[in-house]
Every structure is written in structure tokens, then in C-alpha cells.
């Protein structure tokens, strides 16, 4: 952040972040941290979005409105589909085993 010139004729400046009132000197170089702070804020938003992507009910940074529970619904339907498929395969194997046992005469 830049310095605030309090009294230009007396060469007094104020640092708004630390509230330090000091004399302005020509031998000290002062850089503005505003562009760096903007980049850090952008990276902070991206980091928060990465953390939010781990929870299925959180809103993502670049998603459309109303898509908060999309991951939760997709997970439910996907797991239901695979559960039905595995259940049918298992039931088919049990039915096949029972049919083979009935042909052999075991049941």
C-alpha cells in the first residue's frame, strides 16, 4: 500500500497499514504491495475453491447458479446404478449355481 502524504512541506508521510508517522526520505525506496496483494487474494480464492471441491454440497467458483448439490446427486445415481449391476450379476451367478446343482441332483 502506498504512503499517505500528511504534510508535504514538512515531508511527513503516514503508513496506513501500521499507522506509523515518519519523515519522508530520498534514500529509502518504498514499493507498493497492492499488485502482489491482488494476486494473493486471487490465489486465496482458488485455494478456497479447491477445498470446496472436496465437499459435495459446496458451491464451486466457476459453476452455474443452482449447482451446489450436483456432485451429491451424481454420486447417488452412479452408486445406485453400479449397485444394481453388481446385485444382478451376483443374483445371476446364484441362480446359475442353483440351476447347475438341480441338474446334478444335489437339490
TrEMBL record:
<dbReference type="GO" id="GO:0005886">
    <property type="term" value="C:plasma membrane"/>
</dbReference>
<keyword id="KW-1003">Cell membrane</keyword>
<feature type="transmembrane region" description="Helical">
    <location>
        <begin position="81"/>
        <end position="104"/>
    </location>
</feature>
<keyword id="KW-0812">Transmembrane</keyword>
<comment type="similarity">
    <text>Belongs to the MtrB family.</text>
</comment>
<keyword id="KW-0472">Membrane</keyword>
<comment type="subunit">
    <text>The complex is composed of 8 subunits; MtrA, MtrB, MtrC, MtrD, MtrE, MtrF, MtrG and MtrH.</text>
</comment>
<dbReference type="GO" id="GO:0032259">
    <property type="term" value="P:methylation"/>
</dbReference>
<keyword id="KW-1133">Transmembrane helix</keyword>
<keyword id="KW-0489">Methyltransferase</keyword>
<comment type="function">
    <text>Part of a complex that catalyzes the formation of methyl-coenzyme M and tetrahydromethanopterin from coenzyme M and methyl-tetrahydromethanopterin. This is an energy-conserving, sodium-ion translocating step.</text>
</comment>
<dbReference type="GO" id="GO:0019386">
    <property type="term" value="P:methanogenesis, from carbon dioxide"/>
</dbReference>
<protein>
    <recommendedName>
        <fullName>Tetrahydromethanopterin S-methyltransferase subunit B</fullName>
        <ecNumber>7.2.1.4</ecNumber>
    </recommendedName>
</protein>
<keyword id="KW-0484">Methanogenesis</keyword>
<keyword id="KW-0808">Transferase</keyword>
<dbReference type="Pfam" id="PF05440">
    <property type="entry name" value="MtrB"/>
</dbReference>
<keyword id="KW-0554">One-carbon metabolism</keyword>
<dbReference type="InterPro" id="IPR008690">
    <property type="entry name" value="MtrB_MeTrfase"/>
</dbReference>
<dbReference type="GO" id="GO:0006730">
    <property type="term" value="P:one-carbon metabolic process"/>
</dbReference>
<comment type="pathway">
    <text>One-carbon metabolism; methanogenesis from CO(2); methyl-coenzyme M from 5,10-methylene-5,6,7,8-tetrahydromethanopterin: step 2/2.</text>
</comment>
<keyword id="KW-1278">Translocase</keyword>
<dbReference type="GO" id="GO:0030269">
    <property type="term" value="F:tetrahydromethanopterin S-methyltransferase activity"/>
</dbReference>
